[in-house]
Amino acid sequence: MKQYILGMMAFSLIALSAQAEEKQLTSPDGRLVVTVSDNQGCPSYQINYDGKVFLQPSALGLNTNVGDYTHGLTMTNASEVTTIKESYSLSRIKKSKVDVDAHRQVFTFSKNEKAVFDVEFHVGNNDVAFRYLLQSHGDTRCCVIKQEATSFAMPQGATSFLCPQMAPMTGFARTAPSYETNYDLDVPVGTRLSKTGYTFPCLFRNGNDGWLLISETGTDGDYCACRLMGHDDGSYQIGFPQEGEMNGLGSTCAGITLPGKTPWRTITLGSTLAPIVETTIPFDVVEEKYPASKTYEGSKGSWSWIIRMDNSCNYDEQKEYIDFSAAMGWQTVLVDAHWDSQIGYEKIEDLARYGKTKGVDLFLWYNSNGYWNDAPQGPHGKMAKSGIRRKEMAWMQKIGIRGIKVDFFGGDKQEMMQLYEDILTDANDFGIECIFHGCTLPRGWERMYPNFVAAEAVLASENLHFSQYMCDNEARNATLHPFLRNAVGSMDFGGSALNKFYGADNKHGTKRRTSDVFALATAVLFQSAVQHFALAPNNMTDAPAWAVEFMKNVPTTWDDVKFIAGYPGKYIVVARRCGDRWMVAAINAQREPLKLKLAVPMFAAGSALKVYADNAALEGAVKTVKLSKKQLLDVTIPCNGGLVVCE
Any coiled-coil ranges, and where (predicted)? Predict the structure, then answer.
């Protein structure tokens, strides 16, 4: 019945749009046009780009406990258009300096001649963001948003690239949802719909006209995190968390104070995939929630768990990994689960002191704990309550711990969003960086929380250890991340393995199908300011010297990014700049070798370039190539192979 009603609403929006009161807001370059309308009582918006429909009339509105604001509304005001021209610096995202150029306008909707909410639109040349601003209602100072009408109606013929949301209290130790399912690619909208909806971000191909990436940003403890629910008519609607999340406790709705505001819904679009790979909209519209207590810097490090698993979390092997990081010139070691029982607090203090003598700091793993999962790994009970958490963090600060990796969260309800915020806020007081795993998507958090480093929220490297199927499909999945997960936030993947097998002896375990050059390329393609790579001490002698040397020096913070070529699930070519040095990285998941004539104008004609490439047998090598006057490179990348070009 709900799908039928939504379908009828969408039909009514289209049928009545000609009679509606409507306003248009254009991008600074005039190519993107957002049309906002009241559609005879049903608020809507539509997006056109270069004269082509990218989103059909799509619903706006909220159903709250103080009123149903999805119908019977009139647009009663549109503010003056404001031009936003500002710059900000942020070292932990894909660009270190961002110039924002956008138009903003606020549209007021009223019911029974009383203003009930505004919709604020932020429109850049390739980005649209909007949020709701709710008004006060007499003496009412609080409000529960029971449902959003917000929808995204795709044009006919569009296809989707989506990650189905996990059912609550499923997966390992009932820790789901954690944004860790495989993507379904190029599926016609309205077909093969997931009953649990889809995790953000969500990518769509608008036929031959272009691409759209839908997500949200600015979510904190004042709202829940959302998902997309698909409908048979090709439209998608904002969905709130599933009831069973957090062991069935907590609200599936969002509670806010009045006047109040919701997170931003974001849409990035263009005729090519470049705007999606390069977008900074998740950070453009949010603000820092508190000042940094110290300067947080990017870093590289090692971790034993990905190759050697739980048993490696002992004093001797962690000391070996400290020595390994020092030999690589890296700054950290991640001490993973069970350190509290297999090493102990006193010996962790010893390891921290030893690391300092080598110029290597520690990250420590923690279970998020609480009543929302059955995960047995410790430390337990250290992150869920403020008093205990702050005592633990004071100890970490005293012994010089650099950061924490908190794992196994319990869903997207507002109560869980508040836990993320509380952990980040407390950690900043003690100068501690935060990585989250088994978690939700970060939504603008790199700018909101200065000590937030990265989150998993993806089928990351651990799945390569546990599943040969994931190893067999590593290239296919890796070509997705720059267009999807990593397009909207820092991704803690923990990859770039140089072992042939995911096992301590490098002879047993799941077998890596990708090349060593592929591993180097993903170190560039996957963006996160803090990286714990899957290299192992044995790689100092059993991996190619040129690969080890590259991994010693690869940056983890970047100043710029350029999309060059690619298609989700097939191949990807991206250029990143650190300082004045560019790196071009590419991987290929297609069965046939990928032959490209790459335009690389970021390198001067006549430059001597280092080219890391594979032959047909996935045997890698590095050679020096002089760049032609036309600044073109002829390259061939085999299936499961990679390419890196740098000066």
Answer: none
Does residue 33 sit in the same domain as residue 176?
Answer: yes
Neighbours of 527 (CB within 10 A): 24
Q: CB of 497 within 8 A of CB of 544? A: no
Nearest to 137 by CA among 64, 70, 73, 42: 64
What are the structure tokens assigned to 354, written together?
Answer: 């030893």
Residue 18 has pLDDT above 90, yes or no: no
Structural contact between residues 165 and 227, judged by C-beta atoms closer than 8 angstroms: yes
Domain identity same for 376 and 517: no
Length of the chain counted residue by residue: 647
* Confidence (pTM): 0.95
pLDDT tens for each residue of 184-212: 999 999 999 999 999 999 999 999 999 99
- Please give the C-alpha separations between residue 238 and each of 40, 86, 150, 203, 284, in angstroms, as whole numbers: 22, 30, 6, 15, 22
- 19-55 pLDDT, tens digit per residue, is 568 999 999 999 999 999 998 899 999 999 999 999 9
Closest CA to 490 of 424, 448, 443, 425: 443
Contacts of 599 (CB under 8 A, 6+ apart): 564, 631, 632
The verdict on 181 and 305 lying in the same domain is no
Other C-beta atoms within 10 Å of 271: how many? Answer: 17
* Contact assessment for residue 439 and residue 178, using Cβ atoms and an 8 Å cutoff: yes
Query: Of 577, 580, 458, 586, whose CA–CA distance to 183 is shortest?
Result: 458
Domain boundaries, position 171 = 2-284
Average pLDDT score, the chain: 96
